[in-house]
UniProtKB/TrEMBL annotation:
Catalytic-site annotation from UniProt: 142, 166, 233, 236, 259, 268
Protein name (record): Tyrosine recombinase XerC
Domain Core-binding (CB): 1-81
Classification of source organism: Bacteria, Pseudomonadati, Pseudomonadota, Betaproteobacteria, Neisseriales
Alphabetized GO MF terms: DNA binding; tyrosine-based site-specific recombinase activity
One Gene Ontology term from the biological process aspect of the record: chromosome segregation
Signal peptide from the UniProt entry: none
Keywords: Cell cycle, Cell division, Chromosome partition, Cytoplasm, DNA integration, DNA recombination, DNA-binding
Cellular localization per UniProt: Cytoplasm
Gene3D superfamilies xref list: 1.10.150.130, Intergrase catalytic core (1.10.443.10)
SUPFAM superfamilies associated with the record: DNA breaking-rejoining enzymes
PROSITE patterns per the UniProt record, alphabetical: CB (PS51900), TYR_RECOMBINASE (PS51898)
A cellular-component GO term for this protein: cytoplasm
Length: 300
């Protein structure tokens, strides 16, 4: 069957698949060959492939990798069908396990405060950066929402921010005192073209782009000694997680984030539970109590 694998790879090569894809498919099929022994690839039935998939899952292979391997198997057996070596495709009805749901990464409360407090400098762009990231953290903004903000979206009298979210939906969010103070500092230094409505502008006086914001936060995180890569969406996740930890009000967090469905917000309850579990382990007097030694006194 190794000859069949070689011919299949030749077929994919002619079809223009990348060397990386070819190497991955070859490895996936050779792994399957080892699992099926003494059967060959051509003799395998759906139950054999299902067993091989389950074994790989049990060994810790992630859902993404399993889906890729299953795709390689399907294409191989489809090629065997077209070349007249099989009448069926035993992989056609198989499904990979559901993709692992990755929890959003959030900074701890003190980590978010430490990062923001260290964004300081004499340049007006330093003041702008502090205002941007304080506002993102204060209002739970998406990157696209931050980029799209205009001067008229800030209500200084009521300390509210009008946000245009996904699908053009608008929402209002309160602006925290520190974010408001940093906004006022930035606007006192803001230099923009006369026809530029953007709240945040670059050196040329035009609207700041998302890539620039991402780069500035990455650079600040490195300068301030952050222990992990920090991106703007992490500040949004931190906003949601910290607000939920303090209030426990899932509906309010949903409204502030601009989520259409509560299910999108519920992922933060997992982060909140992780926080509570950690607090419990550290604080509860019996959380980590050592097991009692067995009593050996015969008279007891």
């Amino acid at each position: 069957m190794r000859d069949d694998i070689a011919r299949f790879i030749d077929h994919l090569t002619v079809a223009g698949r990348s060397p990386h894809t070819l190497a991955g498919y070859r490895a996936d099929l050779e792994t399957l060959t080892g699992q099926l022994q003494p059967k060959t690839l051509a003799e395998a039935q759906a139950i054999d492939l299902r067993k091989a998939l389950a074994q790989q899952h049990a060994r810790g292979l992630g859902s993404r990798s399993l889906a890729r391997r299953l795709s390689a198997w399907r294409q191989f057996y489809q090629w065997l069908q077209h070349s007249g070596q099989r009448e069926d495709n035993p992989a056609s009805a198989l499904r990979a396990p559901k993709r692992d749901k990755l929890l959003p990464k959030a900074l701890p409360v003190d980590g978010a405060a430490a990062l923001l407090d260290r964004i300081e400098g004499d340049d007006e762009l330093d003041a702008r950066d502090r205002a941007i990231f304080e506002l993102v953290y204060s209002c739970g903004l998406r990157l696209s929402e931050t980029v799209g903000l205009n001067l008229q979206d800030v209500d200084f009298s009521d300390q509210l921010l009008r946000i245009r979210g996904k699908g053009g939906k608008e929402r209002l969010a309160p602006i925290g005192a520190e974010a408001m103070r940093r906004l006022q500092t930035w606007l006192a230094q803001r230099q923009a073209a006369a026809d530029e409505p953007a709240l945040f502008t670059g050196r040329h006086g035009r609207r700041l782009g998302g890539r620039q914001i991402e780069k500035r936060l990455r650079d600040w995180a490195i300068k301030t000694g952050a222990s992990q890569h920090v991106h703007p969406h992490m500040l949004r996740h931190s906003f949601a997680s910290h607000l939920l930890q303090s209030s426990g009000d899932l509906r309010a967090v949903q409204e502030l984030l601009g989520h259409a469905n509560l299910s999108s917000t519920q992922i933060y309850t997992a982060l909140d539970f992780q926080h509570l579990a950690k607090v419990y382990d550290q604080a509860h007097p019996r959380a980590r109590q050592a097991p009692a030694k067995p009593d050996t006194d015969e008279d007891s």
